[in-house]
C-alpha cells in the first residue's frame, strides 16, 4: 500500500508542478503550486516526517501561497505597459546575482552538514523531546539560513511589486 500512495503523491506533485509552469494565468499557477506543496507534504508523511509535512502545509501552502495570491490579485498583472530596464539596473542585478551565488558557494563549501539524530523506534524518546531538538536546531544552528530565506522572500515580494508596476503611456505630441 505505501508504494501505491508514493506513486500517487509523486504523480500528483509532478502534474501540479507542470501546471505551475504551463499556466499563463498567475492565479491558476499559484493554486497549482498550492496543490504541489500538498503533494510534497504527502510524500513527507509517507517518510514518517509528520512535523515537516505539517510545517510545509502550514507555512508554505498556507502563508506563502496566500501571500503570492494576495500580491498577484493586488497588482493585477494583466495588461499595462512596462518601462524597459535601464542599463544600470541590469548591471546592478548582475552584480547582485554574482554576489549571491558567490556567498552561497562559499557557505556550501565551508559548512559541514550533519544529520540530526532522530530516534528510529517509537519508544526511544518522547515526541516532545524530538520536537524540542528540532526547535533548538532551528533557532541555533540553522537560524541564519532561516533568516536569509525570510529576507529573500521579502526582497522577491518587493521586486514583484516594483517590476509589475504599470506606467501610463505617454502620448507623443506632434
Description:
By secondary structure, the protein is mainly α. It has a domain at 1-78: Four Helix Bundle (Hemerythrin (Met), subunit A), CATH 1.20.120. 72% of the residues lie in helices and 0% in strands. The chain contains 6 helices and no strands. The protein has helices at residues 2-22, 26-46, 50-75, 87-110, 127-139, 143-163. Helix 1 (2-22) packs antiparallel against helix 2 (26-46) and helix 2 (26-46) runs antiparallel to helix 3 (50-75). The model has no long low-confidence stretch (mean pLDDT 78).
Summary?
With 174 residues, the protein is an all-alpha fold. The chain has 6 helices and no strands. The chain has a domain at 1-78: Four Helix Bundle (Hemerythrin (Met), subunit A) (Up-down Bundle), CATH 1.20.120.1200.
Tags for this entry?
6 helices; 72% helix; Four Helix Bundle (Hemerythrin (Met), subunit A); 174 residues
Helices and strands in order:
Elements: H1 2-22, H2 26-46, H3 50-75, H4 87-110, H5 127-139, H6 143-163
Helix pairs in contact: 1-2, 2-3
Could you state the order of secondary-structure elements as H and E? Answer: HHHHHH
Q: Note the quaternary state here.
A: single chain
Largest sheet: none
Mean pLDDT: 78
Helix content estimate: over 70%
Give me the Rg, rounded: 21 Å
